[in-house]
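The material for today's practical consists of a large collection of protein records. There is nothing in a record beyond a sequence line and a structure line. As an example, a complete record with its sequence and its structure tokens follows:
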Amino acid sequence: MLPLLAFAIGSVIVAAVAFLLMPARAGAIDRRLDELTAGREDGTSERKPSQALLGLLKRVGEKAPRGTKELGPLRLRLVQAGFRRPEALTAFFGIRVVFAVGLFLLMGTSILGRPNITFALAAMLAGYLLPGMVLARMAKRRSHRIRLSLADALDLLVVSVEAGLGLDQALTRVGHELAFAYPDLSDELKLVNLELRAGKPRPEALRNLADRTGVDDLSALVTMLIQTDKFGTSVAHSLRVYSETLRTKRRQRAEEAAAKTGVKMVFPLVFCIFPAIWVVTIGPAAIKFVTVLFPMIEKSK
């Protein structure tokens, strides 16, 4: 009964996915508008594979169920990972549904072996959770890159402000200078400049910068800049003091990581190195012990 049940559930899921992927009228109109605006003479749709895949994921994501409570944190996580396009959230839901359905069909049919409905449901749950874990990992790695680049950016910012530039012009200059070495932080600073040109107040633009990156050190820098602007203190002096504080925190993090090295090395030593040492040191003695002791036991009997 389990293979029949897995086949029935798989057939229902395939039919539902096929129904969701049917081209809607709005999709056909959008494609036609894209053809007209691109200036194509023929009526064929020559789209890149990546664009076609993105359109497929968007169509699936639009039909996917979603909770209202997770939309805000998930959109923020996508922005922190570097995906700021409006269709990123819909594409993520599509990826999650495609992974879940694909792993369910892979484990629920006889492609890899005997079908098992329990393994299929577990694989579907894993496929549903895996994209979120990967997204969190990407956001963490991007935040780490921004945290490493913040010290050099602060040095350039201090030099620019002390040279006579205003804070807005200094942020723009630093964003252009860091485009090659630290593209993530450079993009964020350029986006701050665009928000300021669009008319946003400087405190709001800086708070958006802290929210988009999710870096604690950058959030502290934003708070310091907002307070400096509010109370009218020297921006250059505040930046220099914060730069020294940041370098002290980086040194303390390095010392903390070095102190944890001894504890982290215990597990590789115990499970990888010590067994080999025991085999090399005790192995010959054990072989000699067996070859000498067993004949003596047999003779005594």
